Automatic annotation (TrEMBL):
It comes from Candidatus Ornithospirochaeta stercoravium. PROSITE patterns: WYL (PS52050). Transmembrane segments: none annotated. InterPro entries: CBASS_pafABC_assoc_protein, WCX_dom, WH-like_DNA-bd_sf, WYL_dom. Residues 231-300 form the WCX domain. The lineage of its organism: Bacteria, Pseudomonadati, Spirochaetota, Spirochaetia, Spirochaetales. Pfam families: WCX, WYL. This is WYL domain-containing transcriptional regulator. Residues 131-196 form the WYL domain.
Amino acid sequence: MSQTERIFDILYQLSSEEGCVTLKEIAERYEISTRQAARDIEYVRTRILPSPDDIVYDWQKRAYRLSEEADTLSYWKENMLISLSIYNNAASDAAAHLNLEEALPDSMRRILSHIDYRTPVRSRIDDEKWLSQIFTAFDKHRGIIIRYRKSPDSESEDRDVDPLRLVNYQNAWYLIGYDLNRKDLRTFRLSRVEKIIISDRKAYEHDEKNLDDILDSSYGIFLSDSSEIFTMRFRGGAAVRVSSEIWHEKQRARWIDGEYELSVPSASSVELLSKLLSFGADAYPVSPESFVKEYRETVKMMDSGR
């Protein structure tokens, strides 16, 4: 049984009515050492749960359990099932997700059979053909040479990159990497990649926390050490819909004269402009002025049929 399967089962055991699990039980159930069982518990504690304090050791029962303050039962069951549903619908290897399902209790499998995750637009298979090479680079800790075309009108060029993070964003694959020539982080859309060569050189060490901070700092897939606040307003049905959504953890929102005002940090206006236009006349930009100007120019071009 893989660690992924063990993690799902450990979470289920912690969320069950008994709510306790021992290292001995984990080791015997999965035929692993108690040392590996301890590592699995530590992985759940530090990488899965919101806080390391959500798992405590009960000395009376001599078992691990969720703390009284932890988000219990429904939250983890719901999120585990949704995650599995997404995985099952995305996986091309049927055997892979069958193995994961077999690790679940019967009750969760019955619920999972009623969950279907669908997306209107998905990456072409061609977009995903580079994944195995990127995975190899991750595994071997190697740099890669990417032949990349930034836009349909530009010429392709070779980029010497340390691959850092693979992101599926709005059903398209992106590689976050450190570009050695530009000495900065860059985002590469896999559909624009023409070739990948795994380099002989080792990838350099990079600050993962700094990368996480940059990824979390602004709305969208575009990266930058700095971002600015974009403010938009929505009315009618758009206001009702957007008021029920979270666009970014650091967003600010308020109702003004029946309109919903939303402010989010972003390193680029590109995605926000596209999002805003999708609401038609029920949305408009407020600031910064450059965003308002860009919006008006785009609407003008659309009206003129260009």
